[in-house]
Write a structure and sequence with these properties.
By secondary structure, the chain is mostly helical. It is built from 32 helices and no strands. Helix 2 packs antiparallel against helix 3, helix 15 packs antiparallel against helix 16 and helix 17 packs antiparallel against helix 18. The longest helix has 18 residues.
Length: 571
């Protein structure tokens, strides 16, 4: 793939732009000054015009950047002080190093004639091309050491990395300036997971040589790995004119935008990568994730099937499998199988704990209990996680644990100022005895949703709680003349029973409530209470039986059941 080569001024401007972005965004990284140029081992004892020419060419070759390699060839070929064999040797070295280090730009340069058989540089490159090198030989010159270290472009074994590290340490003793050597030091640091050091090396290499694009890519790659993808986007954007048509640049931009959460922008770059390399497993998984986020589970499934052959234990893969199973087909068992497998590998993965908890929260009592514990584990790590707090709140409401629910609700409102579930807010405040807060919520709810039957019921109930019986009667009477659902009318009659002057009037309202909705638990319970107050245990028993059929696990009904048992009238 070709790169556009602008004038030196353009290259300098590019370096300044990228350097500015890097230095501003990575203030914690201090770029070391380039080493002073010293005397190469091969240059010791030289003199005369030929020696000066060799020194000039080998200094450029040691820099190892595309421009330096090109200038070295031009200088060697135009020199009258070098022998034809020296010219061929230098040309070959420049071509070979360029093909190793910059395959996108220099990989198609015609192969130069091989150097004399047995030459140390030839042996070094022969090994480097395989990605497997041994310990540098004693007395190796700087260019042989650089050739050996270029094996890092082809191999990543521990043995190769160890030998290349020694070669670069010996190279550094020559004090020759080499952005390529800096880049290779960055590669070693990155492979040893020392990302800050790697980034420092990559930045130093690119600042010293703006055409050394592998160093730019290394800097972007380490920023992504360090969890700073937006900074990677910034430095890649600054280099778009020079390197934006490179496959490596496109792939890194896809990764950086994706990790920054800029999925729409990442999409075209992801597709460009897959068009050129359909088997890029990391980008394949990103594409699957983006499809899942868009709700396109059918297209995501075959991509995940393909990735399963790459790494079936990958965290993102298992998580996406779980999401597709649940969100795409509502297959609870399959979704939980993937999530549980993921949690067996990453037991503290908060995203998975929440995803599994949301499913379990819809299940049996024991499953809801497990969901509650999972949400608690998330909150132990992230005390203000809104998703976990919602799961806790829903379960505490179901358990009628109003003290805990009130505390959880306050935590949720602090964590998520946009929380607007007025039905839950009203229920928790009222059930916890916070009637003024409940009235405020009901008023806001009624104003925001004037046609909501639940909001109207909540408001009337709040008036009753505030002892405004007259206001409640007026609203109930007006609402009963209007159209409404049977559930709504049943609730209105129940509320009417609360503001009636005596038990008989209340019973009439409750009977009307049950005509509208025979399963109105509040009305059934109220009937029981009135008849027990009137010492009519048989009628009370009749209505308690109906209430227990509606809510067999209700703790308030359990207390009333015990009351009847003590009277010898088991319901």
């Amino acid at each position: 793939m070709r790169y556009r080569r602008g004038p030196k001024a353009a290259a300098a401007a590019l370096a300044a732009a990228v350097l500015g972005a890097v230095l501003v965004l990575t203030a914690c990284v201090s770029t070391p000054p380039p080493p002073d140029t010293g005397t190469a081992l091969t240059m010791q004892g030289r003199s005369g015009e030929s020696a000066a020419a060799k020194t000039a060419v080998e200094t450029l070759l040691a820099r190892g950047t595309p421009d330096a390699l090109s200038r070295a060839r031009e200088l060697a070929e135009s020199s009258r002080a070098l022998s034809p064999s020296d010219v061929l040797l230098y040309r070959w070295f420049a071509v070979e190093l360029g093909r190793m280090a910059y395959p996108e730009r220099l990989g198609t340069v015609p192969v130069a004639p091989e150097p004399p058989s047995g030459h140390p540089w030839a042996r070094a490159f022969a090994d480097a091309r395989t990605g497997r090198i041994g310990t540098p030989r004693e007395g190796a010159d700087p260019l042989e050491l650089l050739a050996l270290a270029s094996a890092l472009f082809r191999g990543d074994s521990k043995e190769t990395t160890r030998a290349a590290t020694l070669a670069l340490e010996l190279f550094a003793q020559t004090r020759l300036e080499s952005p390529l050597a800096d880049h290779l030091q960055g590669v070693i640091s990155e492979r040893s997971a020392n990302l800050s050091s790697a980034q420092e090396r990559y930045v130093a290499a690119f600042v010293a040589a703006p055409d050394c694009y592998p160093a730019l890519f290394g800097a972007a790659r380490t920023l992504i790995a360090l969890g700073r993808p937006q900074e990677a986007v910034d430095i890649l954007s600054a280099s778009k004119t020079a390197f934006g048509d490179s496959f490596g640049w496109v792939r890194l931009m896809a990764l950086a935008l994706y990790d920054s959460g800029r999925y729409d922008e990442a999409g075209p770059f992801v597709m460009r990568v897959l068009l050129e390399d359909p088997l890029d497993s990391r980008i394949l998984l990103i594409r699957a994730d983006m499809l899942v986020r868009a709700g396109d589970y059918r297209q995501a499934a075959p991509l995940l099937d393909a990735y399963a052959a790459v790494d079936p234990a990958d965290r993102r893969y298992l998580f996406l499998r779980g999401r597709v199973a649940w969100e795409g087909s509502r297959n609870k068992d399959e979704a939980l199988r993937f999530f549980r497998r993921l949690l067996s590998i990453y037991p503290d993965d908060s995203e998975t704990l929440l995803a599994a908890a949301r499913i379990l929260a819809l299940g049996t009592s024991s499953e809801r209990g497990e969901a509650y514990l999972m949400a608690g584990r998330v909150l132990a790590k992230y005390p203000a996680d809104p998703g976990a707090l919602r799961i806790l709140l829903a379960e505490e409401i179901r358990r009628r644990d109003w003290t805990s629910a009130l505390a959880t609700q306050e935590r949720l409102r602090a964590a998520d100022p946009e929380y607007r579930d007025r039905a839950s807010l009203y229920l928790v405040y009222r059930s916890a005895g916070r009637f003024e807060e409940a009235f405020r919520v009901a008023s806001e709810w009624r104003t925001a949703s004037p046609d909501s039957e639940d909001a109207r019921i909540a408001y009337i109930r709040s008036l009753i709680d505030r002892r405004d019986s007259g206001g409640a009667r007026d609203l109930i009477a007006r609402a009963l003349t209007e159209k409404g659902s049977a559930r709504f009318r049943s609730s209105l009659y129940f509320l009417q029973s609360l503001v009636q002057p005596n038990d008989e009037a209340a019973l009439n309202s409750l009977r009307s409530s049950l005509v509208e909705n025979v399963q109105n638990l509040e009305a059934l319970t109220a009937m029981y209470d009135i008849y027990m107050r009137q010492k009519d245990a048989q009628k009370a028993r009749f209505y308690l039986r109906q209430a227990l059929a509606v809510a067999p696990d209700d703790p308030a009904l359990a207390r009333r059941r015990e009351e009847l048992i003590r009277l010898g009238l088991a319901p």
